[in-house]
Amino acid sequence: SGHLRQEDLRGQLIASDEYFDDAGGTSTAYVAQLYRDILGREGSAPDVAYWAGTIASVGRGPAAMGVWFSLESARLRVGETYAVHLDRAPDPAGLTSWPPYWIAHGETLLREGIVSSQEYLDRAHRLYG
């Protein structure tokens, strides 16, 4: 449709030659850096090997997008959005429903969904009148 979603741009940036080179210039180092930057943790040896193999067969883009659009990443993005807009962690229901929504519809629509909630509106009214 001619529109680039925020998360798609991030995916393209982390698939770039510059990011690859800064990560160490090897598929293994690159995947390890993806895990640190996207998931905030070290990747397990099997996970790193899997994505390094993906890079060897189809390139960096699918590996970067695979980690970025993983359910684990989606849960983190949802948690960040809750923290910013609701000043709390997601409840179990939110952690069940919002991550697949983020994967399917993107960050902007996730944010719109959360800020259109009654909880957000009540909080905004309390804080800003």
Description of the structure:
The protein is mainly α. It folds into 2 domains: 6-68; 71-128, no CATH class. Helices cover 79% and strands 0% of the residues. It is built from 9 helices and no strands. It has helices at residues 6-14, 17-23, 27-39, 45-58, 60-68, 71-86, 92-105, 107-115, 118-128. Helix 1 crosses helix 5 (60-68), helix 2 (17-23) packs across helix 3 (27-39) and helix 6 packs parallel to helix 8. The longest helix is centred in the middle third of the chain and has 16 residues, at 71-86. The protein starts with 5 loop residues before the first helix and ends with a helix. The mean pLDDT is 93.
In short:
By secondary structure, this protein is mainly α.
Total domains = 2
Residue share in β-strands: under 5%
Mean pLDDT: 93
**Which shape, going by the Cα principal axes?**
elongated
Multimeric status of the protein:
single chain
* Rg, nearest Å: 17 Å
Structural class designation: mainly alpha
Poorly predicted tracts of residues: none
Distance between the termini: 38 Å
Helix amount, in percent?
over 70%
Specify the number of helices: 9
Q: Summarize the biggest pleated sheet.
A: none
Order of helices and strands: HHHHHHHHH
User: What's the number of extended β-strand segments?
Assistant: 0
